[in-house]
Amino acid sequence: MENWLIKQSELVPYRTALVYEGKTWNFKQLKVVVHKTAGKLAKFAGRLGKRVAVIAGNTPASYFMVLALQQLGVQPVLLNCRLAFSEVERQREDADVSVVFVDDVLKKSFGGYVKKNAHYYLISELDAILPKEPSIIQSFKDEEVASVMYTSGTTGQPHGVLQTFRNHFFSAVGSAFNLGLNPNDQWLCAVPIFHISGLSIMMRSLIYGTSVVLVPHFDPVKITQILVSSPVSLMSVVPVMLKQLLNLYPSEGYNSFFRAFLLGGAPIDAVTLDRCKERGINVIQSYGLTETCSQIVALNFADAPSKIGSVGKPLFPVQVRIASKTGEIEVKAPNVVQGYLNDQVSFDDKLTQDGWFRTGDLGQFDDEGFLFIKGRKDEMFISGGENVFPNEIEAVYVKAAGIKGIAVIGIPDKVWGQVPYAFVEPETDFELDDAMLKLYGKKHLAHYKVPQKFIRVDQLPRTANGKLKHAEIRKNFLKNNNW
């Protein structure tokens, strides 16, 4: 397929492509600055290799760098800036990367390593380089790797996911068929571009020829101001972001162009969705993975009010089924990747004999074909012969007064095999009362689902897209027998 950036610069050269803190680039200007960045990378010719890593911030510099690498036919490896340096190094070595570009906004965290390590460079070091005429890829081959992104590692060592141009294209197609496509759409990107939720917004912009409003980080006050005063039509959020925005929802509402929040990353409670419904805010729940290049299942505008709690129906052209014996969600689609970097065996182990990808998530369809997520297969545990899904317990307790966040895991028990323990992130100054919380649970849950113990934590560990790290919680608890 044709090079997306070049194509849009020819089709809609003067349409806005990127907005960042008051500065705007149209597609013609975006192509110029990206190709200029590609020309500056000529200094590293011979060192760039097949892949280059980017420790990206939500800034134009990182945005341009990712696109410039694609223009050169170099695979950008998106590394999570929230990782410890030792974790970053493991992924750099796994990806066989010789050059790592660090966004200057992350200088405080990584500046010391840039000085000491020959592999690391600040993006600003390109400023003093005179660009050469770059050798730009004129067309993208469908199966060429467009990006490498490591899984969040909620249950083990992260895998480098090989996302192709074809994968990104069909992910964008499915989203457009579900949400509709307006050439004047502006998608607000407050999620990290090193994560698939952020990168997919960038890729959709190039495929659709629509605008991205990029913000450096999620600030609910600033975001609310943008949603009120700017013609933003869509925004991707995770549950914690949506809740904070609801607390600041203005009486006059958002701008007249605003269409919906696309909600992903983790399940959301019905109370929060009811609050959105009362305010007339469209929330499109969705479900996807790094291995599917973003969403594969989503609600549409018409079904959203009547199917609260569901993530929707499979998008076009995605097939989803539920394994009869395990209840695991399995998927087949052109946006499902074909492998993991340096670990094809682990990827192949996730495929069924007839080629469907096993997601590791448990779910069920209702009578009308809407999918409901029950939780992770590896998080489910058995207590006294009964299957217990932490997600179900968490959804009940997050409605209780004083609870900001909660994570439930199974703890070994001599009598029942495993019993649920809850780790609670309370609201400010809220005192946990085990007896009251157990009584609350008994009113809403079967007795074997009520946590045996409630442990206060200052902050629950989460991935970049808001998913609870149950495995990390379990590991720390079993290691120390306390928090």
From TrEMBL:
Sorted UniProt keywords: ATP-binding, Ligase, Menaquinone biosynthesis, Nucleotide-binding
Domain (AMP-dependent synthetase/ligase) ranges: 10-341
Listed Gene3D superfamilies: 3.30.300.30, N-terminal domain of ligase-like
Any one Pfam family match given in the protein's UniProt record, by short name: AMP-binding
Enzyme Commission number, as recorded: 6.2.1.26
One record GO biological process: fatty acid metabolic process
Reaction catalyzed: 2-succinylbenzoate + ATP + CoA = 2-succinylbenzoyl-CoA + AMP + diphosphate
Domain AMP-binding enzyme C-terminal: 392-467
UniProt-recorded Gene Ontology molecular function terms: ATP binding; medium-chain fatty acid-CoA ligase activity; o-succinylbenzoate-CoA ligase activity
Pathway the protein takes part in: Quinol/quinone metabolism; menaquinone biosynthesis; Quinol/quinone metabolism; 1,4-dihydroxy-2-naphthoate biosynthesis; 1,4-dihydroxy-2-naphthoate from chorismate: step 5/7
Family annotation (HAMAP family): MenE
NCBIfam families associated with the record: menE (TIGR01923), PRK03640.1 (NF002966)
Family: Belongs to the ATP-dependent AMP-binding enzyme family. MenE subfamily.
Task of the protein: Converts 2-succinylbenzoate (OSB) to 2-succinylbenzoyl-CoA (OSB-CoA).
Protein name: 2-succinylbenzoate--CoA ligase
Originating species: Liquorilactobacillus aquaticus DSM 21051
